Amino acid sequence: MPVLIRPASTPDVRHDAYLAEPNARSRLQRLLRATRQAVRPSANLSMLLFEIDRFHDLFDLCGPAGIDRVLHVMVHERLVNLHNCAILHLGGGAFICLVPFDDDDHLVTRIDQLRQSLSEPMWVDPHIVHLTISIGVVIAEDGDGADRLLHAASLALSHAQRAGENKVRRFKQAMFADLHAQAALETEFRSGLLRGHLVPFYQPIIALTERGLKGFEALARWHHPRLGILSPGAFLPLASDMHLGGDLLLA
Asked: How far apart are CA 65 and CA 33, in angstroms?
């Protein structure tokens, strides 16, 4: 018989703030402890952090009552059919699923089961809703606490969401290094804007028919103190992500 592992004190679906609220963190810790006690000693355990893709668009379409219906169907009609998994709703469209598994192939199968359980369309009057989810996966090691697992799963989920909708990414330790490198580059970019390190280079425009100079194209370059002169491809996406495009135009 399918089992949904849930501590007695864990409430059904409700709109909890993402784990900033102390009670949400404690509920996750209790759920992790209860799941470890319930699974076979030889089994591995993974944490899946998943979010409904385009949740805000879905909210705008269905409204609060419609979203409550979506979440109710997800938990009480779809996710409850996943064998021997523990489910926790974090709020909004975000969920944690603790999944015991035997080996990598078994884990892939279990993730596919999760995705399949939510893939069937659901009727939310007057709309037919087709859900997809993005998933971050982390394997729990002995001694891993809830905070560490959630941090790693959240990073993996961010990578999945950047890859597009309906994607799965497993946590890799290199993701932390990439994150720190990105944070350092963002700090250096802000500093470069303030210090005037982003400068225009002028490329001549030649009219071949007239064999003469018609003007110049201005191209931004970043005089990076460590990496040398960087072309726009290295920093324009960064400026866009940081919403500093306007500052770049004024540099």
From this structure: 33
Model confidence over 197-225: pLDDT tens digits? 888 888 888 888 777 888 888 888 888 88
Q: What is the pLDDT of residue 227?
A: 86
> Does pTM surpass 0.90?
no
pLDDT at 13: 31
Ranges of residues in the chain whose predicted pLDDT is under 50: 1-21
Element (H, E) at 142: none
Helices (H), 74-215: 104-119, 146-162, 174-195
| 227: Cα within 13 Å, side-chain hemisphere | 14
Q: Name the nearest CA neighbour of 134 among 107, 109, 115.
A: 115
Distance of CA 130 to the CA centre of its chain: 20
Instruction: Copy the structure tokens of residue 140.
Output: 């729990």
Distinct helix (H) and strand (E) counts, the chain: 7, 11
Residue 216's SS3 state is strand
Report the SS3 class of residue 104. Answer: helix
Q: What does the block give as tokens for 207?
A: 């009219």
Distance in angstroms (rounded) separating the CA atoms of residues 118 and 201: 52
* Among 52, 35, 23, 32, residue whose Cα is nearest residue 157: 52
